Amino acid sequence: MREFDEKKFEEPTLSREQIFHGQIFQVVKDLVSLPDDTMGTRELVFHNGGVAVAPIIDDKLILVGQYRKAFEKFIFEVPAGKLEDNELDNPKAAALRELEEETGYTAEQLVEISSFYGTPGFSSEKTYLYFPSGLTKLENPRPKDEGEFLEVVEVTLDEAKIMIEEGQICDAKTIMSVWYWELQNLKTQGDLDA
């Protein structure tokens, strides 16, 4: 790991103004002291974080399609959702909940492949990305969230890559899931060829 003095880059908060406090996130405007002894402002979004699950059954990835109002488009994503206040210390439980609500499946095991900040320039949202194993279809799964309308599809790796090229898959967590899936396939093929 590269070592450096990160303290010299810190931006101490001099004051904070709350702009908005909603059910999913809050927005603040901070006045900060910059490393060159000047002042600057930072508009920040605080969010509990989220989870995403990339379920693969019979060499097909389960995706959920939904309309995303923020950019007025219907897209396909891996099952995902926000961390509830009581799940902040247990993102795996949230991932299992979202998997069940959105696909009707549960998993025996979840392996975290990554956790990442999607937009670190202004948001604290951290997403935990899991690959499940031991998937089982439930007879009576939890219901979807109120007001959530989803189209569940299963796609091959090649189909998922085409969906990325065509913009039907355009979010980071799903693109990352597809790339990880492809890497795992390449590793497996490499093991078979050796």
UniProtKB/TrEMBL annotation:
Keywords: Hydrolase
InterPro entries linked: NUDIX_hydrolase-like_dom_sf, NUDIX_hydrolase_dom
Residues of the signal peptide: none
CDD domains, sorted: NUDIX_ADPRase_Nudt5_UGPPase_Nudt14
GO molecular function term, any single one: hydrolase activity
Every Nudix hydrolase domain range: 46-177
Top-rank taxon, per record: Bacteria
Cofactor(s) named in the record: Mg(2+)
EC number: 3.6.-.-
Protein name per the record: NUDIX hydrolase
